Amino acid sequence: MKKLVLALAATAMMAGAAQAQSYPNRPVTMIVPFAAGGPTDIVARIVGEHMSKTLGQQIVVENVAGAGGTTGITRAAQSKNDGYTIMMGHMGTHGAAPALYANLKYDPVKDFEPVGMAAGTPILIVGKKNFPAKDLKEMMAYLKANPDKVNQAHAGIGAVSHMTCIMFNSQLGIKPTAVPYSGTGPALNDLVSGQVDYMCDQIVNLVQQIKAGSIKAYAIATPVRSPALPDVPTTVEAGMPEYQVTAWNAIFAPKDTPKEVVTALTDALNKALDDEATKGRLLELGGVLPTKDERGGKWLGEFVGKEVARWTPVLKDAPK
Amino acid sequence: MSGQVAPSEDQSRGLIKSTQELGAGLFLIAIALFFYWQGMDLPRGSLRALGPGMLPLALVTLLGVGGLMMVIFSLFEVGPRLERWSLRGPFFVFGGIILFALLIRSCGLMIAGPVSMIFGMMASDEFELKEATIFSIAMTIVCILLFKTLLRLPIPVIGTLLEPIFPF
Amino acid sequence: MEAFLGNLAMGFGVALTLNNIFLCFVGCMVGTLIGVLPGVGPIATIAMLLPITFGFDPTGALIMLAGIYYGAQYGGSTTAILVNIPGEATSVVTVLDGHQMAKQGRAGVALGMAAMGSFFAGTVATLFIAALGQPLTKLAQLFGPAEYFSLMIMGLVFAVVLARGSILKAMCMILLGLLLATVGTDLETGQERMTLGIQDLSDGVDFAVLAMGIFGFAEIVRNLENPETRDVVRAAIGRLWPSKDDFRQSYFPILRGTLIGAILGILPGNGAVLGPFASYTVEKKIAKDPKRFGRGAIEGVAGPESANNAGAQTAFIPLLTLGIPPNAVMALMVGAMTIHGIIPGPQVMTKNPELFWGMVASMWLGNLMLVIINLPLIGLWVKLLQVPYRMMFPAIMIFCCIGIYSINNSTSDVLFTAFFGLVGYTLLKFGFEPAPMLLGFVLGKLMEEKLRQALILSRGSFSTFIERPVSAGLLLVAVVMLAIALLPSIQKGRDEVFTE
Is the CB of residue B4 less than 8 Å away from at least one CB of chain A? Predict the structure, then answer.
């Protein structure tokens, strides 16, 4: 056993000399705070694949799900700030979390080095197939007239569908009966079979159901229509312009990660966003990509501050 | 599982006719009390809107009643006695697992594997240090090849403590 | 009928290209491997292998990933039988009689029968999906929260029937399982419940963590203190192949299991977990001598294993025809499809017929491959049992540790497993059985969720469970079954406990 320790120490010393190489010289771990296969995970894997090519080292996605994504981000925030652990943050973890989790162990604004926005997915307002409203205006009127009758589904506290619908309801000034589900799948299932009346969720989860006519889409909460669903009006067109929500995903590094490392990561991310194949994949999901102005760490840093300020009052007042 | 010993000399027991049943009942009551203590502050809600504490409270109550019934039965009905408890097995096996958990992130599978396995193997009365060392190192190599190389799981092989000095 | 055959032919045309056969084979191999390794589940593996599939065409990629999924189901039964560790909720039942058979030197027979039952079930389920997939989806849409709740109640009754010894003890274990399922963040209010302030418990206890601790580690400790019981497994190596009698006993259980599993698998709320339990209950109830169950009855392996595999396959129906994933693995398949540019939904069948029918055909092909891969391996597995226990248990230990760690890359999960191992050991000492507890745990999460959803939707009226016909029917079945289960033990008193 002693010999083994000695041998290890010797190798370690020799290896120490090789440390001075430039970043990155070993695989980079990207913590995704949600389960594999979800929208954030998909964005991370698509972007990460191209970034690996630029960096010359594999970006390994590590899914650390739990507590609305805050478990994974907490872990990532506390890991070594050498650029070998980065994370895919999200509207929930870096916008809504301070309002939802009283004992959150990180500050979305102060505890991270923003690398850049990756991609977002727009939010849609959808209703069950035979919901008695033909457009958003009628829907708003119906919801206001029948507050005791309507049921709104969401995929659990802290889920995108939960937060975004709270914002929708609070802007409308209504408090419908909220039915919690343990995920988008079961919630969508009960919307399709007509057990619940309406919900708000990311376009990627809904697009096929809308195309097949098993649910009705009322509006998309972006300034322009989505190429994935050209027939669905925006909230601006449909009469609720103040409702603008996108479930964004962005890369962050732990606080005080060296500047040159963050720059290398930002460049790699931008290259990925410029790549036609990567772009195509993200657009196919119905995703929205950052414009040239919205790229990079500086913009993202400011954006996170605005998001926290926007979500906090909405979620703090909301009935849970 | 072959745990239940046939009650042979059953008639000659004292007040408690089945120590296993008594222990089982007391154990359940203890669990019920523990969960009651943990969950008593949760709002129970109403039937119209069940609160987070309603179901746990109902379950805890039923569990406690079940435990109580077992305690009562143990005084009247002859049943198996409590088996001998060993300390060596649980100590080394669970200790080995805990060592694995403590070492895996910082020192990686490379260290956590052999250490936890050697410690765990001490649970067996046939333990031999040399054999255990060779076996655990060989097993660790197999595991690295299997989980890291073949299945590509993100399991740390080197660990954060040693990573800066092992740049592969 | 003609369209049906045409579709199947098209499917086989897709599945039988050299490329796809190869991918299917690779998927089945990897699946078997991770299934056999305790703890490493298909979710972690599929997630890690996803990037590799970026280069393939979508059909090929999905064929491979699907192969991993049912390969893992297959491999999981092997571990359940050999070392008494259920890797997934669906193999808990296999442990009961499968491991007993292994202890009697009939591991080969159990493995062989499981493989053949699974193959038969897989074949039937493939045809089932092809012929009835779409109409059955409509049926599944009848299931709202109230119906699911009643279904779960029925499942809990199965757990009582499952029990071998004292019914009181079994019921207490179910209650304990239900109680453990309530640990974690409350779905409706977001409040943390009984988490002891530990952040890693905020999403509740993971099934694999509980199962690995209660079954796997507790069994290791127990074996270490009784050298006699563990050496039984080593010493007695009986026949490798099921005999004619074994086959005769298994025909009908396999048929019934296949049917039960296939039907429950269609339900979008992960009804597949109930399949093996339901099958076991049925076999035990109609057996001439129910006492054999839990002591190595081959029907208790053949039926549930068939139900398990049939359910695993028909669970693809809600995914392929509705685009709604019934469980975590299927949710991952949705992710995989999405990455490949196919967003699953009601239109996959008409818009991507090659993909749909290719996958259906590859399921059958995969099952065939699994039998071909697994039958020769039986000899190897049985030999593995002869490894001295002092080496066997650290190997199981390290595999479990790595597997548990890799579920969520979490060290606290590993610590929890050690804790549940200790709990499991204590429970064994007090004569409790772990299986009903696990079933209670699995059903508990769904049950509370569905109960509260149903009550929210009915605005607090319990009559919703009786007013809705499907729900009322399920509850009626549950009551009748409970009566059948309880009557004999009430009549005979509690003597039955000691009639071993």
Answer: no
Q: A320 to chain B nearest CA, in Å? A: 12
**Which residue type, as a one-letter code, is found at position C437?**
M
Which residues numbered 11-70 in B keep a CB inside 8 Å of some CB on C? 20-21, 23-24, 27-28, 31, 35, 38-39, 42-43, 46-53, 55-56, 59-60, 62-63, 66-67, 69-70
The closest alpha carbon to C366, from C121, C133, C136, belongs to: C121
Residue C78 contacts residue C111 (beta carbons within 8 Å): yes
Amino acid at C12: F
Q: What superfamily in CATH does domain A27-120+247-317 come from? A: Bordetella uptake gene, domain 1 (3.40.190.150)
In this structure, chain A runs to a length of 320
Residue of B3, B39, B67 lying closest to C431 (CB–CB): B3
Contact C294, B1 (CB under 8 A): no
Give the right CATH number for A122-238 from 3.40.50.620, 3.10.200.10, 2.40.50.140, 3.40.190.10: 3.40.190.10
* Beta bridge partners of residue A90, listed in sequence order: A249
> Of C322, C281, C319, C316, which Cα lies nearest the Cα of C300?
C281
The answer to whether the beta carbons of residues A178 and A196 sit under 8 Å apart is: no
Q: How many residues does chain C have?
A: 500
Tell me whether residues B123 and C398 touch, CB distance under 8 A.
no
Residue C269 backbone phi and psi in degrees, to 5: -90, 35
Distance CA A210, CA A232 (A): 10
Provide CATH 3.40.190.10 ranges for chain A. Answer: 122-238
Which residues from B are below 8 Å from A13, CB to CB?
165
Integer CA distances (angstroms), B108 to A14, A258, B93, C340, in order: 19, 25, 20, 34
Which pairing describes strands A28-32 and A85-90: parallel, antiparallel, or unpaired? parallel
Q: Cα–chain-centroid distance for residue C430?
A: 27
**Nearest CA-CA distance, residue B142 and chain C, Å:** 10
Q: How do the domains of chain C map onto residue ranges?
A: 2-498
**Average pLDDT for consecutive 10-residue bins of chain C (500 residues)?**
79 87 90 82 75 77 87 86 81 87 86 90 87 72 84 82 77 92 82 80 84 87 74 59 86 92 79 84 85 87 92 82 76 79 74 83 88 85 81 89 84 92 92 86 84 88 89 90 72 43
Question: How far apart are the C-alpha atoms of A260 and A265, rounded to whole Å?
Answer: 9
pTM score above 0.80: yes
**Which helix (H) or strand (E) is A201 found in, with range?**
strand A198-202
Query: Who contacts C114 (Cβ-Cβ below 8 Å, separation ≥6)?
Result: C77, C78, C81, C94, C98, C301, C302, C305
**pLDDT tens digits for B72-116?**
988 887 778 887 788 888 999 999 999 999 999 888 999 999 999
Residue C331 token pair: 């949710």
User: Could you tell me where in chain A the CATH 3.40.190.150 domains are found?
Assistant: 27-120+247-317
- Contacts of residue B95, defined as CB under 8 A and 6 or more positions apart, other chains included, come to B119, B120
Please tell me the distance from the alpha carbon of residue B146 to that of residue A137, in angstroms, as a whole number: 58
Q: How far apart are the first and last CA of chain C?
A: 54
Going by C-alpha positions, the residue among C64, C59, C65, C88 that lies closest to residue C76 is C88
Backbone angles phi, psi at C6, to 5 degrees: -60, -45
How many CB atoms are closer than 10 A to CB C28? 30
Instruction: Give the Cα separation of A111 and C169 in Å (integer).
Output: 51
**Cα(C45)–Cα(C56) distance, integer angstroms:** 17
Backbone dihedral angles phi then psi of residue A248, each to the nearest 5 degrees: -90, 155
Cβ contact C364:C309 at 8 Å = no
CA distances from C360 to B10, C151, C363 (A): 61, 28, 5
Supply the pLDDT for residue B93.
Answer: 93
**pLDDT at res. B8:** 46
